[in-house]
Amino acid sequence: MNEHNARPRRRGEALIKAIHDAALEEALAVGPGRLTMDGIARRAATPRTTLYRRWSDPVEVLLDALYHHHPVEEPTPAADDLRGDLIRSLRLMADWALSPAGRAVKAILTDPKSMALMSEALFERVFAGRGGTFTRTVLQHYADQGRFPAERLTPVVADLGEALVTKRLIDTGTAPSDEELAAIVDQAILPAVGFPPAAPR
Q1: Is 60 helix (H, G, I), strand (E, B) or coil?
Q2: What is the pTM of this model?
Q3: What CA dihedral angle connects 99, 118, 162 and 66, to 10 degrees?
């Protein structure tokens, strides 16, 4: 019995996950703009026809993988821990940025061919479909609950935490520590929505 026949047959969610993982790995290996159905299928160890039953081209496979690998912060339902929710959302973002999905997004956004091919769909189908930025999800929830004036949630404020985390990732190539994330929240985001800067902890 050869290796192909010995491999357990995957179906349903297990097969989709294997294809999604393969699409991310292939995008990082060859570049998002050079993805092919053959390359994804080979890496997923599944026939190319299996991919075509669900997706029309490799870009569709990659976008679907990015959508399913994009985390979404779930704020505290009672909206009573803004600081903690913001720190957790930035940790989620930092961990995602260093994951295969986050690295694939970086590859798309830094490659002119990939940008032209995928950037609009990436923002519409992945980021917007998953609620936008990480801290925006939290801040919008708290604004909706009346915890701070909604007019303070401007586009600049919504992007503030992500911008500072991204700078840290670019500068060092490593994720910020919990203390650094807390400093971003205490010294930048909370004052921006009307809370006094927190004392050092």
Answers
A1: helix
A2: 0.82
A3: -40
Q: Which residues, at least 6 apart from 56, have a Cβ–Cβ distance to it below 8 Å?
A: none
Average pLDDT (32-36) is: 93
Helices 134-144, 155-172: axis angle to 10 degrees equals 150
- Buried b vs exposed e over 121-156: b needs ≥16 C-beta within 10 Å? ebeebbeeebebbbbbbbbbbbbeeebbeeeebeee
Which tens digit of pLDDT belongs to each residue from 60-72?
999 999 999 998 8
- Six-digit token string for 42: 């080979």
For the chain, give percent helix, strand, coil, nearest 5. 70, 0, 30
What are 143's two structure tokens? 């604004």
Q: How far is CA 104 from the centre of its chain?
A: 10
Mean pLDDT of 119-129: 85
The pLDDT of residue 73: 83
